[in-house]
Specification:
Blueprint lengths: L1 E6 L6 H14 L8 E6 L5 H8 L6 E4 L16 H6 L4 E4 L2 H6 L4 H13 L3 E6 L3 H5 L3 H12 L10 E4 L14 H15 L5 E5 L7 H5 L6 E4 L6 H14 L1
Parallel strand pairs: 1-2, 1-8, 2-3, 3-4, 4-5, 5-6, 6-7, 7-8
Helix pairs in contact: 1-2, 7-8
The structure holds 1,3-dihydroxyacetonephosphate (13P).
The site of 1,3-dihydroxyacetonephosphate has 15 residues, from strand 8.
Length: 247
């Protein structure tokens, strides 16, 4: 199964979220494309709206972009995994590089969040990625394997885990597109260690309609995690079609 989804990051009003989700609802009315598992990760403000439009039995999984490791308490500004589940999320994105860089997310908090997510029966989408200087010095594989190992420390059953490899140098409007040669070694290492144990191993970072098929052709890549190119419904539906055509 290829997991193909998008995080909207800090984008979309409720009206915009509604438009996108209505388009997706129409597109998956007959079921998701064969072999493809779609998912969308709206901002928390739009979570209940998105879930209400899709309905409880939708083939689309819905997530949150972050959740705290405690179930409840005096943690101003945070939401917990049980709250996310209550609002309709089945998936929790954890450790995106923007959160590690700007919101002091560490390997330790990522590990706590993975455990909290699994404890409540949701699916962690664990994001890992190396900075440009690590890539340039040939340290990508060691960096990524260490990040994943730290995130999964003490987790016995990783069967529900999704790993997203998102090189920091490839993410966002200042990122550069990665070619297959840039990512093949990391996916070989991830696949060898986790390929038959986790749910999927996704690639993210400047994925677009022009490079998606080629990226899915890299050994060990079993999904795409997309930002900008999937923020408009037509772009996202194109990516779902491209993925389905590679199955
Ligand atoms: P872009 O696809 O916009 O580079 O973002 C990738 C990403 O960070 C997905 O979470």
């Amino acid at each position: 199964m290829l997991w193909v989804g998008t995080s909207w990051k800090m984008n979309k009003t409720l009206a915009e979220a509604t438009d996108f989700t209505n388009g997706l609802l129409d597109a998956v009315a007959g079921g998701a494309p064969a072999g493809v598992q779609p998912f969308i990760i709206p901002p928390a403000t739009a979570l209940t709206t998105v879930r209400a439009i899709l309905g409880p039995d939708s083939p689309v999984e819905v997530g949150v972009q972050n959740a705290h490791w405690e179930d409840a308490g005096a943690w101003t500004g945070e939401i917990s995994v049980p709250q996310a589940a209550d609002a309709g999320a089945s998936l929790v994105e954890i450790g995106h590089s923007e959160r590690r860089e700007f919101f002091a997310e560490t390997d330790q908090t990522v590990n706590l969040k993975v455990k909290a997510t699994l404890r409540h029966g949701l699916r962690p989408l664990l994001c890992v990625g190396e900075p440009a200087e690590v890539f340039a010095s040939g340290g990508s594989v060691a960096h990524i394997m260490a990040q994943v190992a730290a995130a999964l420390e003490g987790v016995d059953d990783v069967g529900r885990v999704l790993i997203a490899y998102e090189p920091i140098w490839a993410i966002g409007e200042h990122g550069r597109e990665a070619g297959p040669d840039d990512i093949v070694a990391v996916f070989a290492a991830l696949d060898a260690e986790y390929g038959d144990r986790v749910e999927a191993i996704l690639y993210g970072g400047s994925v677009n309609q022009g490079n998606a098929a080629e990226t899915l052709g890299v050994d060990g890549v079993t999904g795409l995690f997309v930002g900008r190119s999937a923020w408009q419904i037509d772009g996202y539906l194109d990516l779902l079609r491209i993925a389905a055509a590679t199955v």
